[in-house]
Write a structure and sequence with these properties.
Blueprint lengths: L1 E7 L3 E8 L2 E5 L4 H8 L6 E3 L5 H4 L2 H8 L2 E5 L8 E3 L4 E4 L2 E7 L8 E5 L2 E3 L4 E2 L2 E2 L7 H12 L6 E3 L5 H11 L3 H15 L7 E2 H7 L1 H4 L3 H12 L2
């Protein structure tokens, strides 16, 4: 199995999973870079985490061109072949996927756990989390707690390259050696225009303010600070 990424827009990553001649992509907001990447390959499956256009904008074109089967939450039902909810499990390419509801960013945002690999859209970033557009901070916090409780060696594949900005914000609120070390690593990679992902749950438990929040009130406080940073 091979996991790779396709850059889209300014800072999106469309993750690919390739195995036994089959290809799956996660959150293809733009069809063109996916088509360029595939070249003479087929696209068999598409996973969607939520409805925002920078995650679903390329789905119709890709589905029409390749006949890919689409899995997604209720809010992406116009694209879905299979509509998923919290706790659902399904198998593609011989791999088992578990659906985790990580709402808050949108009403029905879901994440996918494939073994020790988490594809979490805009729910969780390196040192950050998605804006709570629904204003349902409790749902957002609950979703993050689910992710925080995954095995520490779980690899985290978010949909955006927000790492440096998230770390700069975190360093304005707290200070610890792990955070400073990660900031230097990420800063160097971004200066070379290199990807900073994936992260791990173990790392996030040390550097992510939204994992470190002691309760819902502190989570809301951190989120509001970040939104105004």
């Amino acid at each position: 199995m091979f996991i790779n990424y396709i850059k889209a827009f300014n800072d999106n990553y469309i993750w690919t999973i390739e195995k036994d001649g089959k290809t799956l992509v996660v959150d293809p907001g733009d069809a063109d870079p996916v088509i360029d990447y595939l070249k003479d390959k087929n696209l068999d499956y598409i996973l969607l985490t939520h409805k925002h256009m920078d995650h679903v904008g390329g789905v119709k074109e890709l589905k029409n061109k390749y006949g890919a089967k689409v899995y997604g939450p209720l809010e992406t039902k116009e694209y879905n072949d299979f509509t998923l909810s919290d706790g659902d499990e399904f198998e593609v390419m011989g791999e088992n996927f578990i659906v985790i509801l990580t709402a808050g960013h949108t009403d029905d945002h879901i994440s996918y756990l494939m073994g020790d690999k988490l594809f979490c859209g805009d729910a969780l970033f390196l040192a950050g989390c998605g804006r709570v557009f629904t204003k349902d901070y409790n749902k957002s916090y609950e979703g993050l707690l689910k992710l925080k409780n995954l095995d520490e060696d779980t690899l985290v594949y978010p949909a955006h390259e927000y790492s440096l900005a998230n770390l700069e914000f975190a360093r304005s609120v707290i200070s610890n050696e792990d955070l400073n070390r990660e900031y230097e690593r990420v800063k160097k990679l971004r200066e070379e225009d290199k990807i900073t992902l994936p992260s791990t749950i173990e790392k996030e438990k040390k550097i992510n303010l939204f994992f470190l929040a002691r309760d819902l009130d502190e989570f809301i406080q951190f989120r509001n600070k970040k939104d105004n940073f």
